[in-house]
Amino acid sequence: MQRMSKVLLLLAALLVAWMSPCPRASASEVASTRSFVSTYRKVSTAVVGLSCRRGGKDYYFGTGTIIDPRGLVITSTTVVPKGARHLKVFLRGGVIAAGEVVLTESQKELVLLRVKQLEKRTEYPYVKLGNSDDVRLGDPAFTLGNAFQSIEVDDQVSLGKGLVSGLYNLNATSSQSKYAGPAIETSAHLNSGMDGGPLLDRDGAVLGILCLNYSRNRWLGTAIPINELKSLVLPHLGWFDDRTESASVYVGLELEEVEGDDGLMVRIARVGEPSPASLAQLGAGERITRVKGARLESLGGFRTAFAATRPGETLRLEVVKKGEPRQVEILVWGRY
Amino acid sequence: MRPQTWKALALLAGSLLLAQASAKTSDSVVPDSVVPETVDALLERVGQWVVAIEVERNEDIPLPFQIRGASANQLRNYFKRPAGPATGILLDREGYVMTSFYNVAGTVQSMRVILSTGNSFPAKLIAKSFRDDVALLRIETNESLPEAGPIWADSSKSQTGQILFALGRSPDPDRLTVTEGIVSATRRNGGRAIQTDAKLNYGNAGGPLVNLEGRLVAMASRVGHTQPQWGLNSGVGFGTSAATLLAILPQLKAGKDIGPFRPPFLGVRGNRNPSGKGAQVRQVIEGSAAAQAGVRVDDVIREFNGIELYNFDHLRRLIFSCEVNEKIRLKIQRGDQVLEVAPILRVIPRGL
Amino acid sequence: MIAYARPGVTRVFLARRSFSFLLSAFLATSSALADSGISELEALRRLERKVVTAIESAAPAVAFLEGGSGFMISADGYLLTNAHVVSDKITNNVVQRPERRVFNVYLSGGKGFVADLVGSDPEGDVALLKLRGNPEVPFLEFGDSDTLEIGQQVIALGDPFLIGSEELFIEPAAPDYQPSASFGIISALHRNSDTYLDAIQVDVAVNRGNSGGPLLTLDGKVVGINGKIETRFQAGVNTGVGYSIHINQIKRFLEPLKTAKGGVVRHGVIDGIAVAKHTSGGPGLPVTRVKTDSPAHAVGFLQGDRILSIDGRPVRSLSRFKGILGTYPAGEEVLVKLSRGALTVELKVVLLEPGVLPYLGIKCDTDPQGGARIIEVDPNSPAGRAGLKQSDVIVLLAGMKVNNHKELDDYLLMRLPGDVLAVEVLRTGGPLKLEVRVAGQTGPEPD
C-alpha cells in the first residue's frame, strides 16, 4: 500500500484504540450463561477420562485434555504416575482407546500422552492453550473432569464453575501432590478424579492443569499455570488445521532489512525463546541468505516463502554467520 | 485518491462512529467514582482495607470436640489451625482492625497487622464479642493511616439471593483472595448474622463479605475449629452483619467484652395440651421465674403475651424471642379456673 | 503488532501470519465494543435480581420436616421430599418400607401443619405427603428436566444442618424457619450414583438437612429434589458434588404415589433379560440372556438382540440401561428399539415389579486395593453355603475381573437364578477358588 494509506490506517487503529472504553471483560454473566453452556458443549468433547495401573494392584483414575488434533493429551503424574501400564483413555460416546506416554516431568507433575489411533479416527477435538500470565483475580474459571469417575461410568464430563480465587505460591506438599511453585487457585470445585484436568477461562482456553496440592489456609482447588508448562508442551504440539480461528504459524524470528555492501540483506534482529528458531540455535546478527533453496533478497521474499509454510513443516534456510554459511532446518510450530 | 486511500478513509470514519457509540453507552453507566464496573476494579478498591494479621501464640485453644475413628488423623489435620496469616478488616484511619475472634484466640504472644500497602505494624487486642465471634484490634502507631476503611452496606436492605464476595489475605499477605456466593439467609443467630454459600475457610475468616457495590455487608465469622459443624468451604458460612458490627463497635472500642449468649428461661417442662390447644406443664424448675410466679404442674398455658399457644414448642419459641429480665404475661387454665401470671424471665442457669 | 516505516530499516515481527492487520484490528475492536454494551458488574447485578426474585417466589413453598426439607407441589397441600427423610433407613440394594407415620411440617415463616404419608418410592428415594385439613398453601411449579443443560444456573432451597428449624444452632435461639438458599450450576446429567440411577449432578452447595428440598431453575420452577452428596477429607460436608433426582422421573410416579394409600410404589424392570456391560463393537447394548417363559421372552426379546433405545433415550451401557429404566414405576409401558441382525425391531414392554432377582447373600464394599470385600455373609444363602466368609475380597466372578462392589452388583444382575458361578477370592493365606449357585430372591412385598 501507499505510505499515505498506511499512515491513515495507523491513525484509524490508534484512534479506535484510544476512544473505546475497552472493558477487559466481555459479555454479561446472564448472557454468558448461554455462552458457557455452548462453550462447554464444545470443549467437553476434548476432555477425557484416564485410568491406569501400577504394580499389580494400584488403580489410578483421573482426567486429561486433548490439546492437538493428533490426540496429544495433557495430564498429571497424579493420574499417570511413572511406570504406569494399561493406560486407558475414555473418549466421548463410551469409546475407550489406549494411550501411550510421550513425556513425564515430575517436578511440574506434567504428563503428555498420545491417544493411540483408533481405526476410523484421524482427528481429535482439542482445546486451545490460554495465557496464564494474563489471568487476574476474580476472572471466571471452570473445572472439568472425571469427578468420581463420571466420565468412565456415565460418559459425563463434570463441570465446576467459579472464579480465579487466588494467585500464590504453593510450598508445602499434600499427601497426593508434591507440586511446589506458582498456582492458580479456583473456587470452582475440584474433586476426586478431576486432577490432571483443565482449568478453563470463559472462552474455553486452558489456564492451568488441576492439581491435588492446596493451601492449608484455603483448602480450595489449585491448578498449575499453563505457562509453567508451555516450554515442555509446545514442542510436542503438532500439525493442525490452519482454518481454525486464531491459528498462526510461529518460528520466533524478528528480522530486519539492512543495507549491505552488496545490496539489501535480511538479518536476524532477535530470536524468541523458546521457539523453533532458538531450538535451531539461530542467533541475532546472523544473516539469512536462502529460504527453501532460493536466494533471499528482501523481507518480502521471506514473507512470501513463510506464508506458504504450514505448522509441522520444516523450513530450510541458509544462514551466514561471520562469513560462514550453513544449512538450517527449522520445524515450524503451530501456535494459538 | 487511490482506492486504497478511500478504503482507509472509510474505515477510519467507521471506526470513529463506533468509538462514538461506545462512548455514549459508557456514559449511561454510573461513573467510576461511585460504583466499580468490573470485578477487577471492585477488588482493587475493596482490597485497600483488607489486612493480614500474623499471630504468634504460645498455645492454641483446644478442639471443643473429640475426634475418633478410622479417619481421625485426617480430621485432625483438617481441623488444625494452619500456619500463616489470618485476615482482618481495617475500619478507619485510627488503626482499628476487626477480625474473627477465632483468629486471635489462644495464648497470644504478639500480633502484627500487614496493610494492603505492605506496611506492617504491631497490634493489640482491645476487646472481643464471644456472641458474634468478633475481635477488635488496634494498630500501634502514632500517625493516622492513609488508608480509609470500608463503606458499610445497609443491613436492612439485605436480601436472600444477593451476590457477595468473600475476601482474604492469606496465605500471601501481598495478594488478595476472593470467593463468590449469595446471601443464603438473612437474620441468623438472633438476627445478628447473615448466612452465605460463598466458600469460607481459615484464609478468609475475619475478612469482609462485600456486595456488588463494594460495600461491607458482613464479616466472615464462625469459621474454624470452634465450629466444626459446617467444616470448610461447605457452602454454609456466616458473617456478622454490618448492623451488628456497627452496634457493638462502641462497646468494643471502650474495651468491654461481649459475652456468650445466655438465653432467657421460664422454667417449665411439658407437652402439648392433650385436650386441645396450649402447653401443658409437667414440671416446674425450682427457683425459676415460673416457680416464683406460681405456675403449677398440670397447668395449661393458653396464652403468652396475648398470643394463643398451639403447643409446647410454640411456647419455647416465644420464650426464646424474648429478652432476659423481660416481664411476660401468661394466661393459665387450672381446672375450671383461668389465671394470669407475670413472670420475669431469667438467664438460663448453667447445666440446663 | 505494529508496522511502521523508518528510513533504511524495516522491522517486522514475523511472529504471526494472520489476517491483514487492518481487518483484524477492526474486527477485534468492533467485537470489544459490541460486548462493552453492558459492564461485567452490571451483568452480575442483573443476575442478582433474577436470583433474588426466584428465591422470593419459591421460598414460601419450602417445607421443614424433621431432619430434612420438602416442598409443596399443589395448593391443596401435597408435598414432596426424599423417602430417606421420612423413613427410618434406606440401605443400598435393600428396600425398606417406611413406617406409616404422621409428620409435623412447618412452612417458611413457621406456620405448623400435620401431614400424612401418601406414598413412597424408596428405590427412587421419593416420598409424597399431604397436609391435613386441606389448607391453601403456596406451591412450586414443575419445570422440565429433559431440557436442562450442563452449565445452567440453579438454586437449591432447604435446611442444611437444620439451621432454620432447630433451636440449637450456634446458641439456643428461636428457630426462624427461614430456608437457606444456595446457587450454582448443573455439573452433569444422567449420573448413576449407587442409589440414584439417573441423577442431576450439581455444584450448588447442599448439605445434610437439604435432603428433600427443591432444585430450581432461575424461573423459580422445580427441576429436581436434592438428596445426596459426595464428601472429601472425611469432613462430611459439601465439596461441590451433589446429586438430585430429576423432576420428570418424579412426574411419572406422581399418580401411583397418590393412590398408594401410604404404601410403596415399585420401580419397573424388564423381567427376564440380562444385558452386557458395554456395547463394544457396534451400536446397541447386547442382550446376553433371555430366560425361557419370562415376561421378556413373552414380549419377544431374543438373545443377541442389541438394545438401541428405550423411549427414545439411547442406551450405550448397562449403567445407562439401568438409569433409564430406573425412572419408571412398575406398570408403565416403554418402547424398546433394538437391532436384530439387519432388522430394527420395536417392542412395547410393560415394566413389571422385579419378580425374582439373582441373589448371593452377601453385602460388600470396595477394598482399597481393588475388589469387592465381603462385610456380611448370610450363612443360609448361596454364598454362605459355598464357603464365602467375611473379609474375603472377591476379585473374579465367572471369569470377569471385579474392581469394586458396584461391579460385583452389576455382574450379578447379568446372571439368572440357577447359574453356577466360579468365584475367586483373596483370603489371608492366599487366593481361593469357589463355586456359588445363584439363588432367586423375590423383592419385598408391597403394602
Provide a concise account of the structure shown.
The complex is a heterotrimer of chains A (336), B (352) and C (447). Chain A is of the alpha+beta class and 336 residues long. Chain A is 16% helix and 39% strand.
Describe this structure in words.
The complex is a heterotrimer of chains A (336), B (352) and C (447). By secondary structure, chain A is of the alpha+beta class. Chain A is built from 6 helices and 20 strands. Chain A folds into 3 domains: 83 residues, Trypsin-like serine proteases (Thrombin, subunit H); 106 residues, Trypsin-like serine proteases (Thrombin, subunit H, Beta Barrel), CATH 2.40.10; 88 residues, Roll (Pdz3 Domain). Chain A is elongated. In chain B, the strands form 4 sheets. Chain B has a 6-stranded antiparallel β-barrel. Chain B has a 6-stranded antiparallel β-barrel with strand order 7-8-9-12-11-10. In chain B, strands 14, 15, 16, 17, 18 and 19 form a 6-stranded antiparallel β-sheet that branches. In chain B, a hairpin with a 5-residue loop joins strand 2 and strand 3. The longest helix of chain B is centred in the N-terminal third of the chain and has 25 residues. Chain B is elongated, with a radius of gyration of 28 Å. The N and C termini of chain C lie far apart (77 Å). Chain C folds into 3 domains: 201 residues, Beta Barrel (Thrombin, subunit H); 78 residues, Pdz3 Domain (Roll); 86 residues, Roll (Pdz3 Domain). In chain C, the strands form 5 sheets. In chain C, strands 2-3-4-7-6-5 form a 6-stranded antiparallel β-barrel. Chain C has a 6-stranded antiparallel β-barrel with strand order 8-9-10-13-12-11. Chain C has 8 helices and 27 strands. Chains in contact: A-B, A-C, B-C. Chains A and C meet through helix 1, helix 2, helix 3, strand 8 and strand 13 of A and strand 1, helix 1, helix 2, strand 9 and strand 13 of C. Strand 14 of chain A pairs antiparallel with strand 1 of chain C, so a sheet runs across the interface.
